[in-house]
Give the backbone structure.
Amino acid sequence: MLRPIEGSAAVAHAVALCRPQVIAGYPITPQTHIVEKLARLIADDQLRCELISVESEFSAISAVLGAAAAGSRAYTASSAQGILLMTEVLHNIAGLRIPLVMTCANRAIGAPVSAWNDQQDSMVMRDAGWIQLYCANNQEAVDTTIQAFRIAERTELPVMVCMDGYVLTHTLEVVDIPTQQQVDAFLPAYHFARSLDPRKPITIGTLVTPEFYTEARYMNHRALLRAQEEILAADRDWEKISGRTSGGLISVDGSDDAPVGILSIGSVMGTLSDARDHFAEFGPVKLIGLRSMRPFPIDDLKVACDGLSELIVLERALSPGGGGIIGSEVRAALSEAHSPPRIHNFAAGLGGRDMPLEIFPKLLEATRARDATRFAIIDVDTAKIAAEDR
Amino acid sequence: MSSEEPSANIAELHHKQPAFRGLEAGHLACPGCGQALGARLVTEAIGPDVIIANATGCLEVFTSAWPRSSWRVPWIHSLFENAPAVASGIEAALKMQGRPTKVVAMGGDGGTFDIGLQSLSGMLERNHNVLYVCFDNEGYMNTGGHRSGSTPHAAVTMTSPSGKKRMGKRHLKKDLLAIIGAHQIPYAATATVAYPSDLRAKVRRGIEIEGAAFLLVHSPCPLGWGHEGALSIEIARLAVQTGFFPIVEMERGAVVNAMQIRNVRPVAEYLRPQHRFQHLFSDSPEAREELEHLQQLADYNIERYRLTSGQSESRDTEATDTVMRGGMRWS
């Protein structure tokens, strides 16, 4: 049913429709509204679920690990410092191959402390072994959350659903909240083949010597790569039920013969789409939305960028001392292409800095320069900084 | 068919039937490992209907090297500092599934006194129906014998050596039981591998109680403490008989029972066979001072927990346990 609803509440409803048995929650802005809403649904007996109000994000993610291993569908959510505090457990869950879903309400990382949105928190976890799916709007956040449980449970891999803090979590949009029948038709009851059960005792989380460690890592890597099929299948099957796609691995919007493309991730895709209409004088621009950061869809990316002469990669995080994170990966992936486009890599919108429509012409100006921009923070105001730091 | 026949067969079958072992033989623990013995006694007392969440440490390492496992019960190891949180999640899942299976978390003193204390505190505060068992060998022994919050005052470890300016660990053993007690959980107790019947009874109590229960099991580490493996039980018993490691039970934070010491032994008898205390037996005034300090700490325990008052049903069962276990005497 279509209704105006806050992003966090919409995601909470989506989670509830997936019938989780255990939710662990710990407050951190801007994720808090999600667990608040879930706590309310449980208190009002609209969701039969055990809510564990833990003493840290470290325990939140550990508790859902235990719950999923014991045979219950489990969920948690966090942001920023909370995601970082979970670091050790996030890697551990992926290595143990435990199916879990977590929402990351994207937020900048301190210091300097910032309560506002960028995507540094999930980007630093890209090597944790989790599937990472990014949402462009709240409808995608709802649909991706539902898909995430099926993907996690079929691949035995954890899925992080990333949605921009405030821009999505705190924004009222008209969203279709699916019916219970729709979700039940899509998502079977939770079943984990390696669950902890005294009737068939198994040992999980063993010590592994050099004789087997490489093989375990290989299997993990392979599982992530093969998860691409499940991500696509989940989006396709959910489309049959809901009539909506969330873009599979990567979404392409614009004509095939556009010479310029902008690749980005998350809610800024909406801004870029509006800006393209607003600044029509710049001609056709292909917008490429990266939905799946992990697994990184190299083949689909190559197809999406085929025919482009200029590609702008815009991201809301960076690797200090290196440059763009997505930009580096896109460059590496397209180095295999027959005639790769020139790649310009920009970060913008860090720590909640607004990304206005005017960012669009600024980005496109770069394509007219003699040299490609290796990496730049496009909205930095060096006038605010001491001369020696510029 | 005579009436004796079936019972004779049952007796015979019972004899052939091996006792339940949650932790099977063949693991990689050192000879004389107190933790290995403790874990076996604890799992035997719990029975097969259990899920164990194990913190990183010796127990995890010596029982689970892939592709072998000594565990005959479902067992999960995630990390060093999160076993109580993992156990909380398991318990919540079982509650939702309506399964009566018991949940037990296990860790060493490093994982319990130090790095996992926050997670443990959360589990106790939320009063999850979990028995947490800490095998206390008073140091990070898995890493090669390092000081923990549980290492006794003056004990030598690789990170608290004795030398010209130091006499081993400078600080006191953390009073974990008081911290546990402050959570007002239904049941908390200390035990030791030297008194297996007492240990078993406390495990059963902790398992039967609805809500969080905590058990601190003193577990000698021949390698880390520096004593012969064959002396583990004797040394663990002396820790009790000197007052150095009091054996007590708590309900809702109040001490309700303390194992009475029949014949209090001087603390030096406990310290002397252990290499980690050897520096206290030199002729220096510092050594004499620290030895006296440790005696005072033991005396304080005896006074605090009233270990010689005779006002308790729980007694030092040395003779009984020695006979029951077929143990060798050492003196």
